[in-house]
Amino acid sequence: MKFIKAAVLIIMIFLVILGGFVFKTFRDAGEFKTIVSKNLHACQVITGVQSSEDITIHPRTGMAFISSDDRRPLFDGTRGDQGAIFGFDLSAKEPKPLNLTRDLDLEFHPHGIGLLIGTGAVDSLFVVNHRSDGHFVEIFHIAGKKLIHRTSVGGDLMHSPNDVIPVGPKAFYVTNDHGSTSRFGRTLEDYLQLARSYVLYYDGDRFRKVADQLAYANGINMSHDGATVYVAATVGGSIHVYDRDPGSGSLTFRQAIDLGTGVDNIELDSKGDLWVGAHPRLLTFVQYAKDSNTLSPSQVLVVHLGATGAHRVEAVYANDGEPLSGSSVAACFNTTILVGSVFDGRFLSCDLPSGSIVQGS
Fold first, then answer.
1. Are 298 and 314 in contact (CB under 8 A)?
2. pLDDT in tens, 174-202
3. CA-CA distance, 358 to 48, in Å (whole number)?
4. Of 17, 55, 146, 308, whose Cβ has the fewest other Cβ atoms within 10 Å?
């Protein structure tokens, strides 16, 4: 009888602990949040893409570069049709998506992208590419409305690249969104909220780790003066800020900005403020990743940066999954903001809120 009572007590304690863990997981993932809709102005739904996971805009020309791929098969370990980088010319009267990599003779499943503004006449686009023979950063020259492939960069350390920000003709930072190389290990990282992902720096010759202890390192970007690097920690719900040594590429942690949501990609406006696409309910987003019939709420935040680490967070857009699910990026040019999605075959082109006019991204 005593054995039975002890066994029942152990089972009850286990169930309480399990229930607490499940509750904490749902709470931390934002599943209990109430989504209060907040609309942008004069939004148009733009179709003609497979998805729009990452968007960056050339600050002088107004050409938006859009990373587009059928991304759901990647979650099953397979690959769908060839992806593309689309151009969307915001200086045109009636811009339309244009496939800039239609003639690319290379397996192409683009993810995060980063723009390098050259000191001369040549600008470059760096693109994370998930190929069947490995993960690479593809470097393209921008030639008008064409992308000319220059080289592919890969390495053993770069086993789960997500986003990239270039700092030189062949130098860049890239996020590994997981520390584990196995699917089971990555699942444990996500659900146990383990901070095992990291940032790599490629100096043109080799990779090395320059920042770690991140819970799902996702979007990455850099201040206009090159002195600061920003990294989104999706599961951690925060943006990590690092001081950058331009000579060595080393990063020194400065602070974490808690946003309390599943932050994804980061874009900068001309003032240096951060525009962040986010997933307010992460477990819902996981279901949306598996099932196109599931809607996942979208969110856009602006982090207004002040002196000595001060900041102010402004929510500029939120929805319950319509007209765009799974928002992953928000990029600005003049009075226009583009909001992209991880999986939806469309993106939004909207007018910026009054008082938020910027010049370039």
1. no
2. 999 999 998 889 888 988 889 999 999 99
3. 27
4. 308
- Closest to 72 in 3D by CA, of 126, 28, 109: 109
139-179 confidence digits (pLDDT tens): 999 998 899 999 999 999 999 999 999 999 999 999 999 99
- In three-state secondary structure terms, 359 is coil
Instruction: Name the stretches of the chain with pLDDT < 70.
Output: 1-2, 8, 15-16, 18, 21-23, 26, 32, 75-78, 119-121, 353-361
pTM over 0.90, yes/no:
yes
What CA–CA distance (Å, rounded) separates 46 from 129? Answer: 24
Residue 66 token pair: 């859009």
- Alpha-carbon gap, residue 67 to 56, rounded angstroms: 9
Residue 111 is among the residues annotated as catalytic for this protein: yes
The one catalytic residue in 109, 111, 130, 178 is 111
Order the strands of the 228-233 sheet from edge to edge.
217-222, 228-233, 238-244, 251-258
Contact status, residue 166 vs residue 124, Cβ threshold 8 Å: yes
Nearest Cα to Cα of residue 326 among 267, 361, 281: 281
Residue 44: CB atoms within 10 A of its CB come to 11
Separation of alpha carbons 168 and 198, rounded Å: 21
